[in-house]
Specification:
Layout (H helix, E strand, L loop, with lengths): L19 H6 L8 H20 L12 E3 L5 E3 L21 H6 L4 H16 L5 H9 L12 H6 L1
């Protein structure tokens, strides 16, 4: 498919707060209790379900790619990688399923993996990209976060 001669414009809804990652780290998101975090997680999973229904794979699902609006309404954003990743392209390892990171095999299951990591981001902050890739190749899977209830960890 040839690229269009004219740019493609995308109109998005204005989200009055910031990206979810900054909202959780520095904004009023630091004051959110577990029920509010679960609500955010549910909003994101509904977004993933919609993408899957429309036959899209996000490929870069993480807290920095979700926007927060009024009343803690969260929407998935940043669809830069919502296409086939070509050789040599850079993508975020930290939130990527091992089969996607190592073998470039992306499916909706890859987004589900990333969603699990995003859930982890809601309660803690993880390792660097290099550390994550090294650990994944050694078979490591994320540990139980200190501030995470049994039910949430089972869900993750």
């Amino acid at each position: 498919m040839e690229p269009p001669d004219q740019p493609i414009y995308i109109v998005t809804e204005f989200m009055c707060n910031e990206i979810l990652l900054d909202y959780l780290r520095h904004g009023s998101g630091q004051e959110l209790e577990l029920p509010a975090l679960v609500d955010i997680a549910a909003q994101i999973v509904f977004g993933i379900a919609y993408l899957e229904h429309e036959h899209y794979i996000h490929r870069d699902l993480e807290a920095r790619n979700a926007l927060v609006g009024e009343n803690d309404i969260v929407k998935i954003a940043n669809f830069d990688l919502a296409h086939i990743i070509s050789e040599g392209e850079i993508f975020s390892i930290k939130w990527t399923a091992s089969e996607a990171a190592i073998f470039d095999k992306f499916t909706i299951k890859s987004d589900v993996w990333s969603y699990g990591i995003l859930l982890y981001q809601l309660v803690t902050y993880a390792m660097t990209n290099r550390e994550v890739l090294d650990q994944i190749q050694r078979g490591y899977r994320i540990a139980w976060p200190k501030n995470c209830s049994d039910k949430i960890y089972d869900y993750i």
